[in-house]
# Entry
Amino acid sequence: MFVDFDGTLAPIVERPDQARPLAGVPAILGRLAARYARVAVISGRPVAYLAEHLAGADGALLIGLYGLERTPAEGHRTPESDLDAARWHAAIARVASGAEATAPDGLTVERKGLAVTLHFRQAPGLADWTAAFAAEQAAASGLVAHRGKMSWELRPPGPTDKGTVVVELAAGLAAVCFVGDDTGDLPAFAALRRLRAEGLDTLAVAVDGPETPDELLSGADLVVDGPAGVISLLETLAANGAPAPA
# Structure
């Protein structure tokens, strides 16, 4: 059972640092982890943020920055990071500093260590400026620009994404479910389709909302209504196990 965080377990908010999971989410994840072979939150957030706000989700793996960070190994306090991606820290810091120095008022720069996200939710008129800045910085730095909900994110190039994480975590399982709401979740849906072709039972769940991309909705096996719909689904699975196919 694999789930996204923002827009899935937590409502979309004006400022990224204000995002919080809905009440009871850590306990629900803990119950799922006691019932299912593997439970993970796979998010664009740093692992430290997930750990802070999902405290009590015992047994659930925390996968941050689209797979570039992992839950700390047993006996360690700091998250495990992708060593190839780690060499991009300086380039990411330069992009973040450039955005902070030149962006018009209203842009929020979210430093994530191995990524930087430029949010224009509080200033929708900056959509074109943000897209142009992200493209310019990607060309100059070698980082890759990714479009998100009212945002652009720059992160290291490489094959790691939510799809590669889903495939990795699905090893040895007979059935896999992923729940997401944004373009960053499309690789996970694609991974589920490949796994299904290989004989696994899969379920792609899209979280509907005003900004959910049509491509995600059309690729889903099941659509739920916002984070509240996600919680209802997870509570059902935690209590009763997987529902019978319709």
About this structure: The chain has a mean pLDDT of 93. Residues 2-82+160-240 form a domain with the Rossmann fold fold (CATH 3.40.50.1000). The two ends are 19 Å apart (CA to CA).
